TrEMBL record:
It comes from Humidesulfovibrio mexicanus. Pfam families: ETF. The keyword Transcription regulation does not apply. This is Electron transfer flavoprotein beta subunit. Residues 39-202 form the Electron transfer flavoprotein alpha/beta-subunit N-terminal domain. Keywords: Electron transport, Transport. Gene3D superfamilies: HUPs.
């Protein structure tokens, strides 16, 4: 299929290798020293972006990245991401923490997608992460699809194959390490990517320079997306507690181990 428009929804998140400590501030929950934490493109969204670029290269399509976050931080992250694959960016200047309201975030992202010049939903593939390192569980992605009228949605996708007649098939993860294979006859569609099968592309300075010529003006023209979070409250914010009970037992049967584990979980 020629002329595909692949729109990737992605945001920046604190580097997962950092220690993230939740705190309660004047404006509500936040991360301790959040402004000082190094940021990266959400790893789930990064997988979606690489899959989008690979698909666009095969079909002659075009990739757009719609990113919501503080534009100063976005600029820092894009200096690295821009060297990976070619894309155009739509920037929404707003908070990128994990405590923003999912519905409000989805409305802002949907409005950003609608602003893409020449958007043709008959050729649209809406990509994103099946889950998120900041907003989790793909809630935002599915709501963006609904707001845009994209009702064919697939989550936990590891493979997407386009057919010459304009249709496509996807493999979605299901329980037990199995896949569900689904087929559709036409676009648009929403794909929530798992990890796919592609490695992270190597840095290419030429791609980076070409991308930055478009990224810098887009950052300068970033639309404000304040995400006020009105009516949103949190009862508490804390790091999950760790619990470890170790007991060494020799020659226990599989049934005994399973029974003891079940009893421990119930307790």
């Amino acid at each position: 299929m020629n002329g595909l428009q692949i729109v990737v929804l992605g945001s920046i998140v604190p580097d997962p290798l950092q220690t993230l400590e939740p705190v309660t501030g004047p404006a509500g929950p936040a991360l301790k020293n959040e402004l000082m934490l190094p940021a990266v493109l959400d790893p789930w969204a990064a997988c979606a972006l690489y899959e989008a670029a690979s698909l666009a290269k095969k079909t002659g399509g075009k990739v757009y990245l719609v990113a919501l976050g503080p534009k100063a931080k976005l600029q820092q992250v894009m200096m690295n991401v821009a060297q990976k694959v070619p894309f155009e960016i739509v920037v929404l200047d707003g908070p990128a923490g994990g405590f923003a309201d999912a519905a409000e975030t989805a409305k802002a992202l949907a409005a950003g997608v609608e602003k893409i010049p020449g958007l043709d939903k008959g050729k649209l593939l809406l990509f994103g992460g099946w889950q998120s390192a900041s907003r989790s569980t793909g809630a935002v992605l599915s709501m963006v699809g609904e707001l845009l009228g994209v009702t064919e949605q697939f989550q936990g996708v590891d493979e997407l194959v386009l057919a010459e007649d304009g249709g496509f098939t996807v493999l979605e993860r299901v329980e037990g390490g199995c896949y569900q294979k689904s087929s559709c006859q036409s676009l648009p569609a929403l794909i929530g990517w798992a990890t796919g099968s592609l490695p992270e592309p190597p840095n290419n300075p030429q791609v980076g320079m070409a991308n930055m010529r478009l990224i810098m003006p887009a950052l300068a023209k970033a639309a404000p997306a304040p995400l006020k979070g009105e009516g949103l409250t949190y009862a508490s914010v804390e790091v999950p507690s760790q619990r470890r009970d170790t007991r060494i037992v020799k020659d226990a049967s599989v049934d005994d181990i399973a029974r003891e584990l079940a009893d421990w979980i119930r307790a």
